[in-house]
Write a structure and sequence with these properties.
This protein is of the alpha/beta class. It contains ten helices and eight strands. Helix 3 crosses helix 4, helix 6 runs parallel beside helix 10 and helix 8 runs parallel beside helix 9.
Length: 310
């Protein structure tokens, strides 16, 4: 009898959790994003007026996601599709959107949002070509690493949601104000934490952090990849190690989807601290949403650099 009661409690708890997680409105807008950071921002603006889901997971390289039929199904009934843009998802998202047959989310339609249109891209290459590696002609697509850009994207999401559901505009506008206030408060704290390390140089596996570095006063000097998207080579690693030793570069940043061996070897050879960043929510247990992912990254870097002072 006790076993039955415990089972009943577990089932009841799950049902209650589902009810609490369900949107308050049966007519909630169905929002699909390419990445978890976009999903988190959309959720902060739409709240109970939307149902949101990301196609990619936080531990996946957003450049490379398998265009599975299950992802097409998610898009078939979407009211709004949001992508990072700047060709971050060029290898998989356009195929999924086209294959969904959902005319409401095709490029140029009412339910399509390229979030990159809201920001000013950095590192736009001049005359890009294949010899440069996997460069992005429109600029570096990792702009959401800067929370100020998160605010700009949130504003674009609020406007798009208001277009799709005009009667909820007041709620979306208020949610946007709340989000902006929260971001501003966090930026103030993060900049204070990073202030002692202004001008510190770092190396990253892939060129992911120019926006983050510009916001928080770090200097991105080089990458473990010899060119964007090109696997590390022994000669490039040797040159990088020599440079890091000469310039006393104390920090290496990488992501969970890259092979660990190269970064760990360079860290060991140079003594630089290695930090595995949470570029998106879900990349680390502490990174539960957009802002907590940035918080995790700032605190991880500060801990790594503090350890060098001891």
């Amino acid at each position: 009898m006790i076993h039955i009661n415990k089972m009943f409690i577990r089932v009841a708890s799950r049902c209650l959790a589902l009810l609490l997680a369900a949107p308050a409105s049966a007519s909630a807008l169905r929002v699909i994003t390419t990445t978890p950071d976009l999903a988190s921002i959309a959720q902060a603006i739409g709240r109970d007026k939307i149902q949101v889901e990301s196609l990619a997971k936080g531990i996946q390289n957003p450049h490379f996601v398998d265009a599975k039929p299950s992802l097409i199904v998610k898009l078939m009934k979407a009211d709004l599709f949001i992508q990072t843009g700047l060709e971050l998802e060029i290898g998989w998202a356009p195929l999924l959107v086209q294959s969904s047959g959902n005319k409401n989310i095709q490029p140029g339609s009412k339910g399509f949002l390229d979030a990159s249109a809201a920001v000013s891209p950095m590192e736009v290459p001049q005359n890009p070509n294949r010899s440069m590696g996997d460069v992005h002609p429109g600029g570096n697509p990792h702009y959401l690493a800067d929370p100020e850009n998160g605010k700009l994207v949130a504003k674009a999401v609020a406007e798009k949601l208001s277009t799709l559901s005009p009667t909820d505009r007041a709620d979306f506008d208020q949610n946007l104000k709340n989000f902006e206030t929260l971001v501003d408060s966090n930026i103030k704290q993060w900049k204070a934490m990073m202030q002692p390390y202004g001008g510190v140089k770092f190396v990253s596996y892939h060129r992911v952090y120019p926006y983050f570095a510009a916001r928080f006063g770090l200097i991105s000097t080089d990458e473990i990849e010899p060119k964007p998207g090109i696997p590390p080579t022994a000669s490039h690693s040797a040159d990088l190690i020599a440079r890091m030793k000469a310039e006393r570069i104390p920090l290496i940043l990488t992501e969970p989807w890259f092979e660990a061996r190269s970064a760990e070897f360079i860290s060991k050879q140079t003594g630089a601290s290695l930090v595995v960043m949470a570029l998106m929510p879900g990349a680390a247990p502490e990174a539960k949403d957009y802002l907590s992912a940035i918080d995790y990254n700032v605190r991880s870097i500060v801990r790594a650099l503090e350890s060098k002072r001891k």
